[in-house]
Amino acid sequence: MVTEELVQVWRDVIQGDEKSWVLFENGTCVILMEPEDDLAAQAVELLSEYGPVAAGSSAGDFGTIDLDAAPGWAVYGHHNDILTYVAPEETGDGANDLAVGLLGRSKRDQDGRELTVVHVEDKRPR
Hints:
globular; 3 helices; 6-stranded antiparallel beta sheet; alpha+beta; 6 strands
């Protein structure tokens, strides 16, 4: 997906107009519940800690959420405010929660290692 499509998905999915968030290249979104001065730097710090997968630890755990506001799924891990979008076209026919979760976890791992910010949604009061 192109960045603009991913931004729109997260705008549709994130509930609450006051939440600032940062989007990474492979579809991982970090929601900043307590935004600091530099949103991108804050999100990079969180994702560098909670993004990379470590098999056999809580960093390898994941779950899936069927989205109502957009086609596809959000995959979550061991940090409640880090979610990765998986589009239906990425999974092929007959995708199950395991396949979706593994793909989302892999994308989160890649974002957690590359740390490439592609969009910042600043919803802080002015």
